[in-house]
Structures are given as C-alpha cells and as structure tokens.
Amino acid sequence: MPDELNDMDKWRTIIEPFLQSKLNEFQLLGLNHLKMDEFWQFVKESLEKKKEDKPERIHEVVAAVMALTVNDYMNKLRLDLFKNSSNEMDSSLFR
What we know:
Helices cover 75% and strands 0% of the residues. It is an all-alpha fold and 95 residues long. The protein is globular and about 40 Å long.
C-alpha cells in the first residue's frame, strides 16, 4: 500500500465506487451527517492502524473498506471524544 498521503489520495479516486457504496450504507443506517471527506479520513486512519496486516494490493484495500462497520466509526468517534475531553480536563486542572 502506498505510504505517502498523495498516493493514498490517488487510490481514493480508483476505489471511489466502493467508498461511495459504503458511505451510502452508513447513511442508510443513520449517519446522514457523514460526508465523503470525513469518511475517507476514517478509512485512511483505519488502514494505518493495521501495522502488521496492512493492505498492500488494491483488492485488499477494497476488502478493508467494505469490512468497515458503523460500529467501527462510532468507536472512533467515542475515542476521539474521550481524547478531547481528557485534554480539556487536564488543561483546566492546571489553570
């Protein structure tokens, strides 16, 4: 899989139909606010997390995208919320 951000963005155009299909599924399941750029950011982050099992071929990337679930996205949002709230809490303690 390409390591550079530009290469990842080139892959985005290649797998766009699969991304759109998965985004439509997420929106059908209630995530109407989710836009393609936000979804693409989520896909990139989830692919980068796979250190030892990182997809290297296009079919592996597509399979990883199609395997994502709404639950994966909600877990990411929850973790981001906890990270942001803990940073705010830590800074407020030292004022």
